[in-house]
Amino acid sequence: QVAAGAWLYQNSDKFMEVVETSVARSIQHDYGINEVKTKAFDVVQRELHCCGAQGPSDWAEARYNNPDGKGALEVGVGKILGTYKVPDSCCREGLSESLCDTTRNFGSIVAVLAQTIYTDGCASKMMTVIRKHDYVALAVVLAILLTEVMAMVFSMVLCCAVRRIDHFKA
C-alpha cells in the first residue's frame, strides 16, 4: 500500500491516463448495459457537470448509441455529423425535460451550440476532485494502514498468549 501510494505520487500523469482509459472504457462498453455503472456514471456527470470521458463526442461510439452492435458504419458517420445521443445526465441543470430530450437526441453539435449539454470531460474533472482532496485521501489511507498494523500486533499477542496457555497445560 505504501509502495502504491509512492508510485501514485511519482507517476500522477500515468494515473491520469489510467483514469481516462477506465472512464472511456466504462462509457464505451458498460453504460446502458450494466445498471450499477450506468447509475454511478450518471451521478458523476450530474455532480461534476461533465459529459463523457473527454467530452460529449465519446458517446458517438458507445454501446449506448449502438446497443445491438450492428451498424457500426452508421455510428461512425453519425460521429462525424454529430448526430449521436448523449445521456440525459449530460444536460445542464435547470433545463426543461423537453428541451433536454430534443437537443440530446437531435444531435450533439446542436446541443453544444445551444449550450444545453456539458462540454467538459469527466476524466479531467475527476482528477481535479482527487487532487483537491488528496490530503483527505492520504489521511484515510494512513488510518487504514494504522488499523492493519494494530490488527497485526494484536494477532501476534493473541498467538503468543495461546502458545503460553498450551505450554502450561502440559
From TrEMBL:
InterPro entries: Tetraspanin/Peripherin, Tetraspanin_EC2_sf. It is a multi-pass membrane protein. GO terms for cellular component: plasma membrane. It comes from the Eukaryota. The chain crosses the membrane at residues 135-158. It is found in: Membrane. Keywords: Membrane, Transmembrane, Transmembrane helix. PANTHER family: RE08073P-RELATED, TETRASPANIN. This is CD9 antigen-like. The lineage of its organism: Eukaryota, Metazoa, Ecdysozoa, Arthropoda, Crustacea.
